[in-house]
Amino acid sequence: MADRFRTPDSYHSVLSVRDTEKAIEEIKNFFQVALAQALNLRRVTAPLFVESGTGINDDLNGVERPVTFTVKDLGGRKVEVVQSLAKWKRLALADLEIPSGEGIYTDMNAIRPDETLDNLHSIYVDQWDWERVITPEERDLELLKTTVRRIYDVIRQAEAVLCSAHPALTSSLPAEITFIHSEDLQERFPDLPPAEREKQVTREHGAVFVIGIGWPLGDGAPHDGRAPDYDDWTSANGRGHGLNGDILIWYPLLETSFEVSSMGIRVTPEALRLQLAMAGQSQREALYFHQRLLSGELPLSIGGGIGQSRLCMLLLKKAHIGEIQAGIWPADMRAALKSRGVILL
To answer: Which has fewest Cβ within 10 Å: 59, 130, 327, 337?
Structure first.
C-alpha cells in the first residue's frame, strides 16, 4: 500500500504543522477574494447533496459511484453527495438571474469513494467552483485563454503573498503559462500515454494549459475522460476540437505534473446533443438539468474548479495532500510516511 506514496529523499516540511494551518488560512482567505475580483464573481452558498435522477450531479468519467442515501421526510427519495458542482452552477446562474460578464463562486466539498489514494488524491475533494455568464460572441478559444491567464495570475499573486508572510518558502512558478492542444501533445509524444505527455510538456514549460479534453484524438482515444454534459469538447477552435482544458504545473518535489484546475466553456444545446450521442448517453436528454438546457433556459457560460488542498499543497511545498487536509488513510501508509518525515493531519 505504501509503495503508492512517494516521498522525496531527506524530505522535511518547510513549515511546522501549526504554521501550516495558519498558511492554509492565509491562502484561502486571499485566493477567493482575488479570484472573485479577477473574474467578476460573487460568492454564493452551494449544496452538499442533490437529488438523484435529476442529472445535476457531476458524472466525472461516468464510472465513479456517488455517495447516496435516502431522506425520510422526502418519502425515502434518494439523494447524492455532489462529485462537483459543474452543472449546478449553471442552474444557479439562471435562477439568480446573473447578467452577462458576471458570475458566481462557491466552496465545493465532495466525497469520491472510488478515488485511488496517492500523494495527490484523497476521497475528499475541496474546490473553489466558479461559473460566469458569457455572450455568444465570447464563445471562443481566446476567451478561454484570457480566463486561464487571469486565474494563473491569481495563483502567482497567492504565491507572492505567502512567500512574503513565510520567508522560508520560495517562489517557483514561471511568469507565464503555456498553451498546448492535446492533439499537439499526441503528435509530439506519440509513444507515451496522456499522463506521461503531460509530464514531459509541463517539465519543459513549468506551467501549461492543455486544451481539448474529451474529443477522440488521432488514435481514437480522448486525452482524458470528461463528462459529455458540461464542458464543450466538440466545438472546433482552429486546431482540432475542444473549448476546455486543465491547468497543470510542474512539481519538482514529486517529479510530476500537478493538475490545479479543470475548466471550460460550457455546452450549447447543440453541443450537448452531439456529445451525449457520442458518449452513448442520449437518454440523459430527459433529465431535469438537460431539459432546462435544451429548452434554452440556461445562459451561456464558462466555468471550472480550482482545487483548494491541491493549491495549498503546491504553494506550501508539501509531499502529500494529507499534510493539508485531515483525512482517513491506510494505517500502514500513515506509519510509513511518518517514518519518512511526512506528518498527516
So the answer is: 327
